[in-house]
Amino acid sequence: MSYDGVRRRFANLPFNKRTDIVTVYWQLQNAFSRIRTRIDTEFGSKEWKDIDPPVQFFPECDEGKNTGRNIIRKQGAFFGTRNEDFPRLKQIVQEEVRPYGFTEIADVSDDDVFWVDFYNIKDGGYVGISMTKDKFYFGMMYNTDCHPVPRGLDPETSRVVPGDGPPSGTGSSTAPNASPSS
Length: 182
What we know:
By secondary structure, the protein is of the alpha+beta class. The protein is built from 2 helices and 8 strands.
């Protein structure tokens, strides 16, 4: 897919059929943890910067007549890679986010930067990676777009607890695509 500039992609699924925000958050947090580990293993330990802390609350969003929550998070950046490393870095990210529906790739690289976004056109959101060609600075982020709130959890008043997945009792364990194996 090729286009001028960055074009926002909206979810194709009806709002109430999308994966809830808590599940999406944990899917991506865990995927990026694996991505950083794989990069460190393959390319040597990196001094990761720009990793947003665990989310405490999800901002409100509106999509049509639906109110949900979304989150945008930086997932790490480092100096010290080479231009020829970018295809492998892209492959690592793609392998980890594809199981969660981020399958449409938009490469908007230019003379100065490698820039690839992985869109989830079914459920919404995108994962972005970029690397400057002159400074060899690689960075990653995601934007979930608007998702429903799981039953029994109000992100405005409920704290999100760090861990390996959605907190029990959120209703998220039964959400579609809760893990790559489901």
